[in-house]
Design a protein that fits this description.
Oligomer: single chain
Order of helices and strands: HEEEHHHHHHHHEEHH
Number of helices: 11
Radius of gyration: 21 Å
Shape: globular
Number of strands: 5
């Protein structure tokens, strides 16, 4: 068992796999991860990555009064559409909303490859305190690369991009996928949001903001996994309930280290002092908290306003000869009620620069 008292790891260690007996084969493509002799699935690149993250978290707890950065459950709206709404549409033969959502999830996973290109300035250039033996020191030496490979695959090995596509195709018997879906998502990505801390400079604020946004996306995705697993495992609406739901479970397992390392690195920033371009100092905690507040407001708005509007438009466009108003009335009755916590009540009307979530 890897030694969790260590704090420094090579890229090769952070990318190393647990030994497995059988590979995961999806639609003829060998994907990451694999199965042990008892048939248990093991996520990729976790031999040293998981104990390393635990060690960095323990060091943070021992050296900082600040808790690890976490996104509380009460700020995450329920998935839209709900499981009941989705099953209603599928039973009625209105499949396009589910096809589109599953395809968008796969596309977002493919975008995860971009994290390996995220530039991070030398830590000593903008952090006053020591960062030796931290997750921060390993972002560009294994953690970002492992994350990118998990999401988009590596070389001839498939990743979450291919696994989500396979789950969709198995459950819905290879539905038609409009190329417009990908083009629309590219168009939505938009411009970089305005700086919240101009004194830090874009090279510093950009990677912190990116990690905050990705952490928010990963945490919000937990309800997406639960939604997909419940829908795709139901033989009444899924053509391959076992295979499709298993793929979602494997992906859910793979995502856990992403949440943990991002939370750890952001906690290490929050516990330190950032240096501005003009020599002034800004508390890292303020930077992380304000960027997180904006990211969460954006994600809440997407769930409460943007996603429901898109789905209703799509239902109207693809309902065929059905009584659309009657279908929508039944659909609306199955929505999951939710009220934002008091501090985010104004999130919906305040659109911020959006990370593209799922």
């Amino acid at each position: 068992m890897p030694n969790e008292s260590r704090l420094n790891f090579s890229s090769e260690e952070l990318l190393a796999n647990v030994s497995t007996k059988d590979p995961l084969i999806v639609k003829g493509v060998r994907c990451h991860g694999g199965f042990d002799a008892d048939g248990n699935y093991h996520s990729p690149r976790t031999l040293w990555r998981v104990p390393a993250i635990r060690a960095w978290q323990e060091q943070h707890r021992a050296t900082s009064p600040l808790p690890l950065v976490e996104i509380p459950d009460d700020v995450v709206p329920p998935h839209a559409p709900s499981v009941a709404q989705t099953k209603l549409l599928l039973r009625e033969g209105v499949r396009e909303p589910t096809v589109r959502l599953l395809t968008q999830i796969a596309i977002v996973e493919g975008f995860g490859a971009m994290i390996r290109e995220l530039p991070v300035p030398p830590l000593k250039s903008f952090i006053r305190e020591d960062t030796a033996g931290t997750a921060l020191e390993h972002l560009r030496s294994g953690l970002f690369e492992a994350h990118a490979r998990d999401e988009a695959g590596w070389d001839e090995e498939g990743g979450h991009r291919q696994m989500w596509d396979a789950a969709r195709d198995a459950a819905l018997s290879n539905p038609f996928i409009s190329p417009e879906i990908y083009a629309a998502m590219i168009a939505q990505r938009g411009q970089e949001p305005p700086a919240m801390f101009p004194a830090l400079g874009a090279p510093v604020e950009r990677p912190v903001r990116f990690m905050v946004n990705v952490l928010a996306i990963e945490v919000f995705a937990r309800s997406t996994f639960a939604w997909a697993e419940q829908v795709l495992s139901d033989e009444a609406v899924s053509d391959a309930p076992g295979e499709a739901a298993d793929l979602v479970r494997y992906i859910r397992s793979d995502e856990a280290p992403h949440v943990e390392y991002l939370s750890t690195a952001l906690s290490e920033i929050a516990a330190r002092t950032l240096k501005s371009e003009d020599g002034k100092e800004i508390a890292g905690r303020e930077v992380v908290e304000r960027l997180m507040d904006r990211a969460l407001r954006t994600m809440i708005k997407q769930r409460l306003t943007d996603r429901p509007r898109m789905l209703r438009e799509l239902i109207r466009a693809t309902a065929g000869n059905r009584d659309v108003e009657e279908l929508l009335a039944g659909y609306d009755a199955l929505a999951t009620p939710w009220e934002p916590p008091a501090r985010f009540r104004d999130a919906a009307p305040q659109a911020g620069a959006a990370p593209t979530g799922y």
